Queue: 4 jobs
Job 1
Amino acid sequence: MTSTPPAPRPQPAGTAPPKRPRIVPVPVLRVLAHERRVMESLVRWVTRRPHGTDGADAVFTHGRDQATTMYALTFACVVETGALSLLLAGLPVLHAVLLVVDVYTVLFILGLHAASRTRPHVLAGRTLRIRQAAGVDIRLPLDRIASVRRDTRFTHEKKDGELNLPIASQTSVTLELTEPVDAPTFLGARRLVTVIRLHADDPQALHDAVTRVRFTPGPGPEAASQT
């Protein structure tokens, strides 16, 4: 005698099916995506293909002032790699493992600098795209900016509602916003800020461009219907 399995209970109308758990956690995916952008930036740096600048009205680089520090750090890592290779010559397995780690570290440091050089701040239309290396990418509508000013700082205190994006420990432009905008953390957590401090190789040019566009009337309904 065979038993008949019970029929599944009908789902109430409008009830969404249960979500399946993610195989890979979101923070891990964000870390992997960051690593991919860093390595991609190396290729863009070598081939001189900046990211996200197509159709831009103005581009503002921001990685120049950290070049000396990044190159010095890279050189130190290369020297360390050579020294470890000599010390571990009699331990081939450990030598191979550390060699892979050291080479990746050198590429990663160069990739971080390459990301700063190939991912500039971009002004397109009435939106300012603010970036820092491969970890920060914020599209800020200019109508959210209450004020923009030249403001060179070398020390930054962590405060709620403020985002500091220093290059070589300095920021040179401060944006005060009319309302909070979301600037997610590295792992994707929500972070609302009303003040953004950033750096540019030519901060005066960024300040002037943002100020000019902010006070330039946008296309009205009649102009928009004619385009």
Job 2
Amino acid sequence: MPEPSGRTVVVPQPSPRDFGVIAFTGRNLVFADIDPAWIHGLLPPDDVSAPLSPPFLHALGNKTGREIGTVDLLALAPPLPGPPPIPLTEVTPTGHPRVARALRHRDDVRVWTCPEGVVLTGRGVAGRWEVAVEVDEAHRGHGVGRTLARAARHLVPGPLWAQIAPGNAASVRAFLAADFIPVGAEVLLTNP
């Protein structure tokens, strides 16, 4: 993890799609093709939380014409060897809402299903491996989310990132139980 510095670093967008803010402990990263002086001019020098504040995100969205997404918990886990702990069948990406969202934010999206739910992986921000899971409504509350999150760690060759809505306590608990470590927060700004 980056060392806390109290600074906000501005870097170019890794791709035209990837645009946003990542907040780590005591350090922020804005990935946007915008003049860094403009960005730093909006941020109070003594407020390390300002890059995720509504006024800053609103100004960033207005300047770029992008829509502000959800501020998500950002969690990370290493890959695991061997087969997943639950039988999964890989399927062609479909019109499932979770798949449609993944296709807007990720490349190389792969989808696995089982009677209990869906696991998706893909290459997201800066090409990192990202995961999303969805538990079938009939199977919620029985640890399936944790099992699917752990299964995803068996499906990728490198570190796996998860963006989790903080208000989705069940999802936060599932990813923590699958040994994902909270590393920060992230908000993506997307083209309408």
Job 3
Amino acid sequence: MPDTTLSDTAPLFRVGLGYDSHRLGAGGPLRIGGVDIDESADGVHAIGHSDADVLLHALTDALLGGVAAEDIGRLFPDDAEVNRDRDSKDFVAAAIEKVREAGYTIGNVDAVILAQRPKMAPHIDRMRAVIAAMLSCPLSAVGLKAKTGEGVDAVGRSEAIAARVIVMLIRR
């Protein structure tokens, strides 16, 4: 277990990087960034043990990585029944608690959703607002954009969806 106690020599800033991806399937719910996206928009859903929210999973790992804590898979195993269909906001909340325990606060977040479909642009503002509220930070501290796969790899063929997140943590 990593030592997450704050000392006088702890860095003023820390950075965390998170990544997640999920296969896409036909029909069903699609939740990204804590926002339910109308399945009729494109008829796809992310397949996973929990709610398969790739953006919140990547955010969780970025927060945990910033304080050198265990990753999301070790804290919330995908073979644990308690995590079946679980809301990914729970994972983010646990990661925020680890950040606070380590003596840090969130400076800013920057994220990219990688999805050929459905189009993310209509949902970006709501996602940013949900994430800012979860992190108790201003909306201006949450950057979010979406990119298509341009027909390349699993994302470009609409077989998968992914997210990358980086966070800046500031010592309190």
Job 4
Amino acid sequence: MRILLGFIFLALFPTFSLADTIRETVPANRASAVGSHAVYGPYCGAGIIPKMKVTRAPKNGSVSFKQVSGKLGENAGRCAGKTVKGTVVVYKPNRGFRGEDVFNVRFTMNMHTYGTAKIRNVSNKYIIKVK
């Protein structure tokens, strides 16, 4: 199973909550990476990996998390190419299922911006099309 499809990295920005809808198409009967998250600071150093939790389970499959190391992509600016640890979100549809499945993943991460400590709550909705 190829897990590293590409990281979606969250930098340390001074916001308090973040929510995205992530849409992916995956093959039936196979586990697939559908998203990933890593935290890095303004000097490109890796942050603490947040604990991720499923807050709404999929009806037709399962979700798991795998910690991996990967290089930051071009959207990381001057930090592009730096290696950091992150978490990959893996979705596995039930055998024989084809169609759409939905689940939510939530995590909280500490932020240290401009000498202050803040907490960012992230809640992502995943809409998965299984073919």
